[in-house]
Design goal:
single chain, 254 residues, alpha/beta, Rossmann fold, 7-stranded mixed β-sheet
């Protein structure tokens, strides 16, 4: 057993109810997306756990700017999006859209949400997970050039040389305030914006970093006043029919 595995088992034991971030995100998808739905996974990429999981809920169509999406074996169909193009689907096509760590890479977030709103059926939902721009990883990411991300990001997560290099990030749709404002501008209802901090994935390169970031995790999870500094935003947006917006926000900066 590696020290990373030992630390995860010791400080984040599933036997005591700890749920990893991906499982919590998948649980959110289950609670929001009816069984048998037609789902558009935006930024689906190659075969991955979220595509596989969504396939257990309904039929999954993938969309990505990278042709590697065509190798994703969990998709019923895959489309490659050319930069600046509209999504290649009719209006009101999907019961749900899902993206997992995509919003931080959007150069044109309003156009993205407008396309999501267009292709969703009335009362359809957009479920997403994305970094919070007020977390230390996003703050460092926004303040440093992309070559620095390529140099250190995968090392800090203890990922091997075969891991995909990080994509460029903009963080233009990565705060609760930005999400709310942009969603409302295209007619989407904000149903939930949940702040989530999990085990320190960027502390996997050394025991010292792990314990420093673990201390941060303990503080922001224990005290609700610091919830706005948690690592991720789990969100649910809904395409309106004739309903009014309801918003769940939980402390901290927006």
């Amino acid at each position: 057993m590696t020290w990373q595995e030992h630390y995860i088992n010791r400080y984040y034991p599933k036997t005591k109810g700890w749920i990893d971030g991906t499982t919590e995100f998948h649980n959110l998808c289950t609670s929001e997306i009816p069984s048998g739905s037609l789902i558009l996974e935006i930024g689906a990429g190659p075969s991955n756990p979220t595509s596989r999981f969504l396939g257990s809920i309904g039929k999954v169509v993938g969309l990505d700017i990278d042709p590697i999406v065509t190798t994703n074996k969990y998709l019923s169909a895959a489309y490659v999006l050319e930069e600046g193009d509209s999504y290649p689907f009719d209006d009101d096509s999907f019961h749900a859209c899902v993206s997992d760590y995509v919003l931080e890479h959007l150069a044109a977030p309003t156009a993205h949400l407008a396309q999501v709103s267009r292709v969703l059926k009335p009362r359809g939902v957009y479920v997403f997970r994305t970094p919070n721009r007020f977390h230390y990883t996003a703050l460092v990411g926004k303040a440093t050039p992309h070559w620095f991300h390529e140099l250190v990001a995968n090392r800090l997560r203890n990922l091997g040389p075969s891991a995909h290099a990080p994509h460029p990030t903009f963080y233009r749709l990565n705060s609760r305030g930005a999400i709310t404002k942009t969603a409302e501008s295209v007619g989407l209802i904000v149903r939930e914006l949940r702040m989530v901090e999990k085990e320190p994935s960027y502390g996997m390169s050394s025991r010292l970093l792990f314990k420093v970031f673990m201390t941060y995790e303990r503080i922001v999870n224990r005290f609700e006043v610091f919830s706005g500094f948690r690592a991720n935003i789990f969100g649910v947006l809904e395409k309106a029919s004739q309903s009014h917006s309801s918003l769940t926000l939980r402390g901290g900066p927006s």
